[in-house]
Amino acid sequence: MAKEKMVISGGATLEGTIRVSGGKNTSVAVLPATLLADDVCHIENVPDIEDVHALVDMLRKLGAKVDYEGPNSLRIDPRTVDTWHVSYAEAKRMRASYYFLGALLGRFGKADVAYPGGCKIGSRPIDGHLKGFSALGAETEVKGGRITAEAAELKGTDVFFDLITVGGTINVMLAAAKARGTTVIYNAAKEPHVVDLANFLNSMGAKIKGAGTDIIRIRGQEKLHGTTYAVIPDQIETGTLMIAAAATHGDVTIEGCIPTHMEALSAKLMEMGVRVTDNDDSIRVKMLAAHRSVNIKTQVYPGFPTDLQQPMSALLTTAHGTSVIQETIFESRFRHLDEIARMGAHVRVVDRTAIIEGVPQLYGAPVTVTDLRGGAALLVAGLMARGITEVYELDYIDRGYEHIEKKLCSLGADIRREPAD
Ligand code: EPZ
């Protein structure tokens, strides 16, 4: 398909109600996890995004029968899967291809997956995942750009993570769900998608307790059955829409979200002077006056999520005062700020810290997306700016946000997709 750009005519106020899509980072774990089932799985509330399309391709290449039962529902029959190899062409399409390691290891006792791709936001090693597989009794090797893991029998054990890792926690849960005996993960990640994946596996008959705390206990099962499961709403899309509402001095209600997942962002927005009101499954964001600067340090859940640091930093470029952002999770997650500087932002990045001196106004300019959440940041900047912003390299945005410009336009934004020059 020919490359496209988004053309944003900035300055519109976002108003109204919008429904959030299903979680990307949950879906990209749940889809590979269906390989562990002995029967058909029906997965609902799956976002219509490129990362999901890529995973559907990967599941089909492995031999699974995958059918869309609607734009957001999949029927996956993993019984016909007969290989444990994932090629470079497939794995490089996304980071979450590493979940095939845990899922295939659980299913076949072996996995051979090319090194994963994904956003270039730091070195992103997966040594913790491999240590976890080794603890379960697998031989692991990284050679020639491929990762292999093989075990005559996976045996439940204690797994201690030196560093909290979302991907590592999920990968070990996947393999341990089919191991003999009990696995206890210490220093586990507590992100909402870790909990959702555990709930999904439990709906297939797994015995997982403690997800959402830093100790997860998994009693391995010989067989897991098919299931029907709806993934949770997307925490990061919810947050991006909240930030976009504030950035445009808007008044937006985001429906179908889980407000408790948004506490860290809501608290920061309120500190900036934005009104945030929670209901059972919706959040209303209303910007009353000019917003103040705040300091942010990204942390593991329930701290401020690194995935919202980028759109939030765009909002802070027009705050009153100077904000300091410390990015503690990834080494290189400020590249979007170079682009927003082209729009008039005053920004200085020193190592993993960004110092943002608020300016009264951004001005539209051509900008290029360098990673998924950086793309969301550029959309926020374009919505705030005076004049026209052209956003290039949309593939990153399309990987993780379902029809984002349509959603924003339904709230009053002026965004068009056009062929890129
Ligand atoms: C997941 O990445 C998400 N991706 C990321 O979202 C998210 O930013 C991140 O968790 C943190 O919340 C998916 O869910 C597919 P980590 P992941 O393992 O699993 C280091 C987005 O935009 N580390 O928790 O890769 C690692 O380098 C994406 O949606 C090791 O050193 O994150 C990083 O510095 C981007 N060794 C830190 O830990 C390991 O074995 C956290 O990584 C594993 C990780």
Task: Describe the secondary structure blueprint for this structure.
Blueprint (H helix, E strand, L loop, with lengths): L3 E6 L5 E5 L4 H10 L7 E4 L5 H13 L2 E6 L2 E5 L7 E2 L1 H4 L7 H10 L1 E5 L12 H9 L3 E5 L2 E5 L7 E3 L5 H11 L5 E5 L5 H12 L3 E3 L5 E5 L7 E4 L4 H13 L3 E5 L7 H10 L1 E5 L3 E6 L8 E2 L8 H11 L5 E5 L8 H7 L4 E5 L2 E5 L8 E3 L3 H13 L3 E5 L2 H6 L3 H7 L4 E5 L2
Parallel strand pairs: 2-15, 3-14, 6-7, 10-11, 18-19, 22-23
Antiparallel strand pairs: 1-23, 1-24, 3-5, 4-5, 7-9, 8-9, 11-13, 12-13, 15-17, 16-17, 19-21, 20-21
Helix pairs in contact: 1-2, 1-4, 1-7, 4-6, 5-6, 6-7, 8-10, 8-12, 10-12, 11-12
The protein binds ligand EPZ.
Q: Percent of residues in beta strands?
A: 25-35%
Q: Which outline best applies?
A: globular
Helix content: 25-40%
Our count of helices gives 14
- The CATH superfamily of the largest domain is Enolpyruvate transferase domain
Strand order, sheet with most strands: 22-23-1-24
Bound molecules: ligand EPZ
Q: Report on the biggest sheet.
A: 4 strands, mixed
CATH class of the largest domain: Alpha Beta
Low-confidence stretches: none
Distance between the termini: 14 Å
Average pLDDT over all residues:
96
Structural class: alpha/beta
Write a structural description:
- This protein is an alpha/beta fold and 421 residues long.
- It has two domains: 204 residues, Enolpyruvate transferase domain (UDP-n-acetylglucosamine1-carboxyvinyl-transferase, Chain, Alpha-beta prism), CATH 3.65.10; 207 residues, Enolpyruvate transferase domain (UDP-n-acetylglucosamine1-carboxyvinyl-transferase, Chain).
- It has a four-stranded mixed sheet, with helices on one face. A four-stranded mixed sheet has the order 2-15-17-16. It has a four-stranded mixed sheet with strand order 4-5-3-14, with helices on one face.
- A hairpin with a 3-residue loop joins β16 and β17.
- α1 runs parallel beside α2.
- The two termini are 14 Å apart.
- The structure holds ligand EPZ.
